[in-house]
Write a structure and sequence with these properties.
binds uridine-5'-diphosphate-xylopyranose; UDP_glycos_trans_CS; UDP-glucosyltransferase activity; UDP_glucos_trans; EC 2.4.1.-; Glycosyltransferase; seven-stranded parallel β-sheet; 13 strands; Rossmann fold
Length: about 475
Amino acid sequence: METPHVLIFPCPAQGHVNTMLKLAELLLIQNLHITFLNTEYIHNRLISLNIDDVKSISQCYPKLQFKTISDFQNKEKHPGFGENIVDVISSINMYGKPSLRDIIVSEKISCIILDGGFGDLATDLAAEFGIQLIHFRTVAASTVWIYFCMPKLLDCNEIPIRGDEDMDRIIRNVPGMENIIRCRDLPRFGTSNKMDHIILDKVLQLTQASLKGNAVILNTFEDLESPILSQIRLHFPKLYTIGPLHHHLNTMKKTTSSSFNSNFFKVDRTCMTWLESQPLKSVVYVSFGSTTTMTREEILEFWHGLLNSKKAFLWVIRPNMVQEKRLIKELEEGTSKEKGLIVEWAPQEEVLSHKAIGAFLTHSGWNSTLESVVCGVPMICWPYFSDQPLNSRFVSEVWKLGLDMKDVCDRNVVENMVNDIMVNKKEEFSKSATKMADLASKSVNPDGSSYNNLQDLIQYIRSTSP
Ligand code: UDX
């Protein structure tokens, strides 16, 4: 039997490329052959910012190759990556199949691991060539499950949401989540609170596409989402939960931080030196992920709240996060070096595992959530869009790992929540965060659920490859 050749294709967004590269490395360690496909735009960005890492991973794994595909965007006015990712994905779906077909043929691909965000992109191709198609959903199991239940929610008139006054209504028809979520916790798109019909159609298409694949991979672990996973398994029998992927990889490689960086922004490592000078669990790490944008007013509310809390903070403000570039300078000038540091992009996994970090003020992206869980760092959640409002609800109400600040942006609330997490309720949050971190570690160690599921997945890929 030949070594299986797996094509891995992430959606062109930071959280997706990061995670799927980790999956690629886990499969490479097990000696599979990998072609990692990126859009040209993303590949060029990775190369320009992480050239040494790209060289080192390529040297380390001779069975890895990178390939690119067009995203069919105007090169001069490229939208980059962000909220418009849905449009970029639509273009790839519309025009990308011939290129994908060429790669499958020329590289003799035996299995495709496709980002679930691409929906049906490879369904026909996999059938035509008789190869396995596995969908990798980069979001939590709870999000996959909510998407699955959307038709039922529509039938029962639970959605669409009827307006701002409707936001606290409890959603009742999601098995396994009864009495947990309100309208305001449902996934959102764009700036509107409502989930419009176009988006709803897309979400339904993704679910249908995953059902047509041979298997589904989720970046989660059994102890974190077991009630939801047992619901999903009724519909997706071949479901592999192998996360937290970054932790799985680090554990397998016996390192504490990832060897390969896939940053879309230039990492500022000065924050690591700064953290060394801070006392144990004294710093709030603040980061709103790779796509969140904020208004001047919102940034200022957070800044005042953090200053008023009297806790030191390390804050990631990406250059494309605020329109007014001068604002970042203003904040830097108004913050003493002892109290706060602002950087454009941090080595987040390393930051979260630093002993000086006491809390994470986060947008609740799924990767950030898992990274915080693994390090046992309690969270204050300020979700922005997409799956984030649901993640933050689980963090606060189900796992009791932090507080949910959604739909509020007020300096007093920021100050109070920081003090609750760092001082008043420190013991209770630390206890539950440490307990969950232990379960995450257990899952990726030999005989843990994610460890075993990864071995099963590899066995499945090997046994179904021609
Ligand atoms: C969004 C979604 O909300 C997420 O749930 C989905 O799966 C992917 O798209 P994003 O805004 O990118 O994600 O957030 P997140 O999923 O948290 O991923 C951000 C990644 O960037 C994390 O892996 C984080 O470690 C990394 N990061 C962030 C850095 O390395 N440095 C930083 O300064 C900030």
